[in-house]
Design goal:
The protein has helices at residues 2-23, 27-30, 33-36, 54-67, 116-129, 131-138, 151-159, 168-173, 238-250, 285-298, 322-330, 352-375, and strands at 72-77, 87-92, 102-107, 142-146, 164-166, 181-183, 254-260, 270-273, 308-311, 334-339, 380-383, 386-389. By secondary structure, the protein is of the alpha/beta class. The strands form 3 sheets. The protein has an 8-stranded mixed beta sheet with strand order 1-2-4-3-7-10-8-9, with helices on both faces. A two-stranded parallel sheet has the order 5-6. One 2-acetamido-2-deoxy-beta-D-glucopyranose (NAG) binds at residues 83-84.
Amino acid sequence: MLLQIKIYLISILYFLGALYMVLFPPRNFELSGAKIRTTRSTGDNLKLKKYVDHKTLSYVLDGFRRRDPEVVKVVHLAPQTFENRSILAVELRSDRHTRKPGILIVGALNPMAWASPNAILELSEKLLYDAKYQTPFFNDYDWYLVPMGNPDGIEFTHNIRSRRPLNSVDWTQNVSVRAETRPSEWHKNVDLEKEQKDRRCFGTNINRNFAYHWQDDVHKTPTRCCQYYPGQKPFSTAEAQAVRKYVDKMGDFINLAIHLHASFIPKKEYILYPWRYSLRTPSNYRTLQDIGEYAARQARLPDGRLYEVHQSSNDERVAGTLIDYISGVVGIDLVFLIKPYHEMFPNFTDTSDLGVYVKKSISTVLSLVRAWRSSTKQNTLSFFGRDVEF
Ligand SMILES: *[C@@H]1O[C@H](CO)[C@@H](O)[C@H](O)[C@H]1NC(C)=O
Ligand SMILES: *[C@@H]1O[C@H](CO)[C@@H](O)[C@H](O)[C@H]1NC(C)=O
Ligand SMILES: *[C@@H]1O[C@H](CO)[C@@H](O)[C@H](O)[C@H]1NC(C)=O
């Protein structure tokens, strides 16, 4: 009799247990990013064989989203740019239900870095579809990517690329030659300010327009024509406003932020970190330097050189930049500026330079992630007594 009751009780318990599993399946079982997607090797070849413009970017991101709506989200940042384009962000998250350590990458704030949207798209492709990159890079992190921070500038420079180059200063002074020439370099967007009387000069340097020690690097405001014109006031550009809004909103989820920039001098390639506006060192500069050096060793350049790693202001003080804003205002601890070499106005049809920049950028980003992993002990990151666990 007693034995029978025991058996009944045990069967009921088993039944309840089974019922619970059916009603509330373990989440990993139900949805794991890695399982629901097809994997393949994406190989070494570029998927995109042309410098990406805003239309192509939008098209490619839409393709990712349609193929894998569970893990890809495309966000249109507001406000729109002067020429009414939306800056696009793409979020790659292997599991919608939990937040993993977040990595932010912003590319092409500077329109001379034509290949930087390509690099971010090729990286996305690998994270999503290549088994070699899914583990650990995709499955262990959430990726927040802004491939093209300055779509108007990219459009402008693409359109004038085949004209005869003229020194940028002469180009801005002399309106009569503009139809058949182009400035030798262009580091701005293309906006005009509301009460601007002299319409000859246009464009603001977005990476001088962020509100952290804005204009601290100059004694007087650079002229409107200057390639480093920082805007009438901080956040006067739509681009800086849009990126700021996004970064402010996502700040709590981002642990590592990277600005993918470019160096325009051959054989001068850098991994840099804040501050840019001041020679003062950030409180965690030792960690930043160590991670940077580790990444530089991992991402040795094709000719055997190493990236130079140091605080950005050691070369030149630059104020109002994205990385200083992210570090100083948003409060993210790990912030880097990557500058692989990129020619200005490269040959549009010859993609060998494009491929070199893209490969360098991807390997540098992933090396930074690896360096960050290796600097953590047992999933814990220690910042001066404060342990951030993930
Ligand atoms: C952008 O949109 C506004 C409002 O619709 C319009 O007035 C303006 O002319 C547009 N600008 C461009 C460059 O298309
Ligand atoms: C502008 O360029 C044209 C053609 O090179 C030249 O003839 C003219 O003198 C220039 N004007 C100024 C103000 O420099
Ligand atoms: C660009 O590269 C292509 C292919 O290599 C070459 O045929 C063309 O002459 C180059 N154009 C310029 C302007 O150098």
